Amino acid sequence: MKKKVVLGLMVGTLTLGIGTGALAATGLEQIKAYLNSKITLKMNGATVTAKDANGKTVLPITYNGTTYLPVRAVGSLLGTEITYDSATSSVLIGGTNGSAPVTNGKVTLSALGTSVLGSTAWHTKDPKDTTYKGKDYKNVYLHNDPTKQGDDIQINTGKKYSSLHLELAALKGNQEIHIYDQDLATLKKFNITPESGMMSLDVDVKGTDAVYVEIVSEDPDSALFVPLTTSYLTK
């Protein structure tokens, strides 16, 4: 039987540093588990070490054939903020103010909350709408209905990012697209057609509070496909 490695939460100082007083809290159940020093963590091919907030190495725990990793230590490796709200007994992943997981200085548009990523009328996770040329992107903006409000994608950057990497494809029709900042200064403009395939471009967004990707003209019955899982912002 293959052991599963999951990003889990175990009670004790191994994870969120919950004090001994909390061990008597309602909902805790005593178990017999094992520290597993044989598990090696690798991230993007490189071996990494999980450490707690004090810099001490922490080990995975194996329980009933499943290996649990310390959530705060793994969050630190991934560049994701992990906090514990004792008032609500909640583990907060990614903060509470619209922040999103950052890996290697990048945050995908799919990870941004609704307070940051606008144009929700275009948003879909429906499998019948998220596949392009055989690849399912899981989470996309699809503009194929003229009755949907707005002709742009809004990204509230809040002066936090330096670059926007955008991927997009025209499913139908020729389209002219302009990218503006909050002052309507043009950052980039281009044309896209179905023959363009999946187009990739990078836009300098330093100092911007918001970025708008707007379709300024399009053929009738056009459709624009923007995968949020492969488009990202860079710090």
Automatic annotation (TrEMBL):
It comes from the Bacteria. Keywords: Signal. It comes from Paenibacillus xylanexedens. The keyword Signal applies. The keyword Signal applies. Residues 57-121 form the Copper amine oxidase-like N-terminal domain. Residues 1-24 form the signal peptide. This is Copper amine oxidase-like N-terminal domain-containing protein.
